[in-house]
Amino acid sequence: MDNVLDINHVTKRYKNGRGIQDISFSVNQGEVFGLLGPNGAGKTTLMKCIVALCDVDSGDIHIHGHHLHDEFEKAMESVGCLISGVEAVDYMTAYENLALAARFYPGLPRTRINEVLQWVGMESHKDEKIKSFSTGMRQRLYLAAALLSRPSFVLLDEPTNGLDIEGKLDFQHLISRLAKEEGVTFVLSTHLIEEVERLCDRVAILSEGTIIGETSKKELGGTQTFESFYMECITKRKEEIRHA
Ligand SMILES: Nc1ncnc2c1ncn2[C@@H]1O[C@H](COP(=O)(O)OP(=O)(O)OP(=O)(O)O)[C@@H](O)[C@H]1O
């Protein structure tokens, strides 16, 4: 199987009936795949399902051809993620937090910690306890943690939340470089449409737990943008609901 990620008919419903229904799509190696949608559409739920932070009710997820539940360790071997609500240890420094995470990857050289801290512009803060960090500084650290293990597949849930202008641009360059030069595959959710236009090769639009559109830069051609495609899908969906 060539795809890095294959999602087939995945449904996850919380006790209150909300969640995601019958989601299917695939992501190829080296692609930057955007998950877009209004607040509450199900983006975080889907990402949590992909890294098994949420059990699915039905459907299958394969990563690099490995079934997420039947071959969990193999499937997760090369995965890095930044998911909302995952916290770091406040009384430890940035470096210590990453060193703690690095213990899960015995072959990883210590120099990798400094490398990822430098990538996210945090090397000068590495010996500070993170309880004093701002939202953006924390977000930079979480991004460093997601990239620490040299993952070949990375999930990023609203990764530039709280980042300043320079941080957002640095992030976009970093993701483009890793995708193009090192073939790293990314699935990212964001509400920043300029980020989508700059970074994504392909997108899926989620609304009320289902995919209402999927397209690629290639399919859009020169005239349409991801933004216009997004608005088309959302407007069409609203019309359908109005006439239902
Ligand atoms: N733990 C939970 N228990 C019950 N309902 C939940 C839970 N987490 C999310 N939901 C509901 O599931 C739906 C999808 O939420 P989710 O957080 O996945 O959306 P999202 O697209 O990531 O939203 P946002 O853009 O606001 O981050 C929402 O209706 C939300 O209220």
TrEMBL record:
Top-level taxon: Bacteria
Alphabetized UniProt keyword annotations: ATP-binding, Nucleotide-binding, Transport
PROSITE patterns: ABC_TRANSPORTER_2
Segments forming domain ABC transporter: 5-233
Listed Pfam families: ABC_tran (PF00005)
Gene Ontology MF terms in the entry: ATP binding
Family statement: Belongs to the ABC transporter superfamily.
Protein name from the UniProt record: ABC transporter ATP-binding protein
Originating species: Heyndrickxia acidicola
Taxonomic classification: Bacteria, Bacillati, Bacillota, Bacilli, Bacillales
